[in-house]
Amino acid sequence: MNQSFYNIVKELNQGVDEKKKLEELKEALKNTIHNDVNSALSICCDGIDLASYLQSKTDIAYFKLIKGVCSSLLSQNDTAEELILEAIQNYEEIRDVRGLASSWLNLSMVYINCKDFKKALNCCMKSSKYNSIAGNLSIKGTLLNNFGAIYFSIEDYKKALKYFLESVKVSKELNDTGNLERCFANIGLIYKNLKDYKNALKYYDLALEIAEELNDGLKKANIYQNLSDLYYSTNELVRSLEFCDKSIALYENLGNKARLASNYLFKGKIYNRTGNTYEALTQCNLSLLIWDKLKDENGISETKCLLAELYFKSGNIDKAVNLAYDSILLAQRNNLKNILFTNFEFLSNVFSQKKDFEIA
Known about the structure:
By secondary structure, the protein is mainly alpha-helical. It has 17 helices and no strands. It has helices spanning about 5-30, 35-55, 55-75, 75-95, 95-115, 115-135, 135-155, 155-175, 175-195, 195-215, 215-235, 235-255, 255-275, 275-295, 295-315, 315-335, 335-360. Helix 5 runs parallel beside helix 7, helix 14 runs antiparallel to helix 15 and helix 16 packs antiparallel against helix 17 (about 335-360).
């Protein structure tokens, strides 16, 4: 056989093998993204490298998008935003409307997580525009859910419920159990906020049933967190603590540091309500350690706000006041109005009691 012809055949076979490897990486992602996010991130990096070697712009965009989704699942929202915007640019270059619809949809989820609902709404509108061309029902179902989440955030529960129920209908038609779980969980949140705890529990149970069927660790952790909050609201603190511990175990396994910190803080709130100040301090300090490493000023401010109350209860007034001042500075910088109000009210009570003590 001619040597040059042999080399051509070898290169063609190698190309086929690498394209097959690319598909294997995509398949592997489906099995890891919700239960081992760090492994999924590694797969995405391999996918980007291989797609770049093959000069496949579609696959480069795809793996960047999924890498962004993985970063979002780990609450690394700045990284997620950057990666998804890169994917959008790649999809725009090749005029892939389905890819654009999916990318803008996932970027809206990042902004929902960041509580930047104006940007989230803008992304949803762009996704809807591209999906009107692509006609993807799965994207439509998730879009309806995201619109619902945005209206939920501004406490327009009637409009939010309307979108969630429309999303349920589309998801059932497609047998899209992943989005259906999100819908049920979100409907549960509406009923919980309306203090209709019976219906909230009903929808949380429906969501948990799906999450268990899917064996989706992240979805289970989120529902456990919701159930912990529900039982905290009904003052069933033993049950609240039980589900909080379950969510902590899963978030730890998933490597989601931000959710882990949030749950340690919530566990501190549970112990505070039971009157166990020592254990409440332990949990809040665990939370603060993680927030500090993440440099999450919102989390630091909220945790220091509760720590101020706890140290005051334990008799360390100077430390309590210093923590409250620290929390105020961060809350002012990040426009955290509820935390500001709580701190000002706390300091007012502290100084009032201190003055009464000095007079006495």
